[in-house]
Design a protein that fits this description.
Blueprint lengths: L2 E5 L4 H12 L14 H11 L4 E3 L4 H12 L5 E5 L10 H9 L3 E4 L8 E4 L6 E6 L4 H10 L7 E6 L5 H13 L5 E3 L2 E4 L15 H14 L2 E5 L12 H4 L3 E8 L2 E10 L3 E4 L7 H11 L3 E4 L11 H11 L5 E3 L3 E4 L13 E2 L5 H7 L10 E2 L12 H7 L9 H6 L2
Bound molecules: shikimate-3-phosphate and phosphoenolpyruvate.
Length: about 400
C-alpha cells in the first residue's frame, strides 16, 4: 500500500505569471522560489537574456505571456520559437488582439503559429474583442500587459470562456502587485496603472496533486500532500471535490492535506471540466480503472495542448481494453465497453511529449504490474521529481528499452 508524505512541486502557472509581473516592475520584488521545471526555466532564461532569439521549448504559458511582454518592450526585436509542437499550437487570436493594441508582430513561418518576430513598441491598448473559447492564456497575456498600455484595456470576451480560473488567477496576482481591474459579465477593464513590486511566495501545484489523488483512489493508500494553499488561486484545487465521487476524501491537518479512502463511488461520472482542463487525464484514467462509466464535457481545448489529449487518451486507454468515445471534439464518454487485449505482451503507454500522459498513466501500474511508460522523462515540463516521489511511497521503477523488449517477445 503506497504510504508517505509528498512535498509537491510549486505551481508553474503561478511562477510564470509572477516572473512576468516582477519583470514588469524592473525585477524589484523578491520572489522566494519559483517552480523548478522546464516551463519555468525557459521563462527565467527568456526574461534574463538579451539575445534576439528566444526558445521557450514546450511551454504554452511562456509562449503566450512572452509574446505580449516582448510586444511592449520598445526598441527590442525578438524572435520567439519553441518545439515543433509549439509551432503547431495556434496563436493568431493573441497576435490579432495585440496588433489591435498597436503591436508589431510578424509570422516567421506559418500564418497563425509560432515562430513570431516581435518588434517591441509602446502599446496603445483601448477597446478590443477577443474570442475566449480557445485558450485563456491569450487573455492572461493581454491582461498582464494591460495596465502599462497607454489607454489601458477594455477586453470583451466572446464565444464562451474556457479555463476561467486561470483568468481569475491572473487578475488575482495583478491585484497582489497593486493593479485593480473590473471583471463584469464578459468584460474585463484595466485602467492604465503601475505595478508595485512585492515579495512573493509561490504555492504548490494543485494539478500535480491530482496524480496522488489518483493513486489514493486506485490503492486506498496512506498519503499526505505538503505545500498546497487552502485559499488557492488555482482552479485545479477543485480536484479535491472531483475525487470525493472517486473514493477519496481529503482533509487539512495543519498545512498538510491528508488523503483518505472512502467507500463513496459515484456510479456514473458526469462532469464539465472546461475550468480544469489539466485534470482531465487524471480523472479519465481514474474513472476507467475504477470501472466507472463517465461522460466528461468541456474538453475542446485538449486538442491543442502538448498533444491532442482527446485522441491520446482514447488510444492509450484502448491498450488497457477500455473503448472510449470522443464526442463532438469536446467530450469523452465511456459506457463500460471493453475490447480484447493481448495479455501476453507488456503494455506500453505512449506519452506524445505530454507530461500529463506519463503522470496520469503511471498509477495504472497498481492494476497492471510491469506497465511501461515510454519517454518517462517528459514529466520535467512541470514535475521533474515525479518518479522520485513515486519511489518514495513504495513504487519501484526500472529503465527499459520498450522497443527492444517488445521485439524480443
Ligand atoms: O494560464 C495558465 O497557466 C494555464 C492555462 C490553461 O491553458 P488554456 O487556457 O490554454 O486552457 C492550462 O491548460 C495550462 O496548463 C496553464
Ligand atoms: C497545457 C499545459 O501547459 P501549457 O499550455 O502551458 O503548455 C499543461 O501543463 O497541461
Amino acid at each position: 500500500m503506497p504510504e508517505g508524505i509528498i512535498d509537491l512541486p510549486l505551481s508553474k502557472s503561478i511562477s510564470n505569471r509572477v516572473l512576468i509581473l516582477n519583470a514588469l516592475t524592473g525585477n524589484r520584488g523578491r520572489i522566494e522560489r519559483t517552480a523548478e521545471c522546464d516551463d519555468t526555466a525557459v521563462m527565467l532564461t527568456a526574461l534574463s537574456q538579451t539575445s534576439d532569439e528566444v526558445n521557450i521549448g514546450a511551454a504554452g504559458t511562456a509562449m503566450r505571456f512572452l509574446t505580449a511582454y516582448f510586444a511592449m518592450q520598445p526598441g527590442r526585436t525578438v524572435t520567439i520559437t519553441g518545439t515543433e509542437r509549439m509551432c503547431n499550437r495556434p496563436i493568431a487570436l493573441l497576435v490579432d488582439a495585440l496588433r489591435q493594441c498597436g503591436a508589431s508582430i510578424e509570422y516567421v513561418d506559418k500564418e497563425g503559429y509560432p515562430p513570431l518576430k516581435i518588434h517591441g513598441c509602446r502599446l496603445t491598448g483601448g477597446d478590443i474583442t477577443l474570442p475566449a473559447s480557445v485558450s485563456s492564456q491569450y487573455v492572461s497575456a493581454l491582461l498582464m500587459t494591460a495596465p502599462l498600455m497607454e489607454h489601458g484595456l477594455k477586453l470583451t470576451l466572446t464565444d464562451g470562456i474556457v479555463s476561467l480560473p486561470y483568468i481569475k488567477m491572473t487578475l488575482g496576482l495583478m491585484k497582489e502587485w497593486g493593479v485593480d481591474s473590473d471583471f463584469t459579465d464578459n468584460v474585463i477593464t484595466v485602467e492604465p496603472q503601475h505595478y508595485t513590486p512585492v515579495d512573493f511566495k509561490v504555492e504548490a501545484d494543485w494539478s500535480a496533486a491530482s496524480y496522488w489523488y489518483e493513486i489514493e483512489a486506485l490503492s486506498s493508500g496512506d498519503l499526505s500532500l505538503r505545500g498546497l494553499s487552502r485559499n488557492s488561486l488555482q482552479g485545479d484545487s477543485h480536484v479535491a471535490d472531483f475525487f470525493t465521487g472517486l473514493g477519496v476524501n481529503s482533509e487539512w491537518d495543519g498545512d498538510v492535506m491528508e488523503l483518505m479512502p472512502s467507500p463513496d463511488l459515484t456510479p456514473r461520472i458526469t462532469l464539465d471540466m472546461s475550468e480544469q482542463p489539466d485534470l482531465a487525464q487524471t480523472v479519465v484514467v481514474t474513472c476507467a480503472m475504477l470501472g466507472l462509466p463517465f461522460h466528461i464535457t468541456g474538453l475542446s481545448t485538449l486538442k491543442i495542448k502538448e498533444t491532442d489529449r482527446l485522441t491520446a487518451l482514447r488510444d492509450e486507454l484502448r491498450k488497457l481494453s477500455f473503448v472510449i468515445d470522443i464526442v463532438d471534439d469536446n467530450a469523452l464518454e465511456w459506457e463500460g465497453a471493453r475490447c480484447p487485449v493481448d495479455t501476453s505482451r507488456p503494455v506500453v503507454i505512449d506519452t506524445y511529449q505530454d507530461h500529463r500522459m506519463a503522470m496520469a498513466f503511471a498509477p495504472v501500474v497498481l492494476y497492471i504490474p510491469g506497465l511501461i511508460i515510454r519517454n518517462a522523462d517528459v514529466v520535467t515540463k512541470s514535475y521533474p521529481e515525479y518518479w522520485d516521489h513515486l519511489r518514495s511511497i513504495g513504487f519501484t521503477t526500472k529503465e527499459v528499452d520498450a522497443d527492444t523488449l517488445l521485439n524480443n517477445i
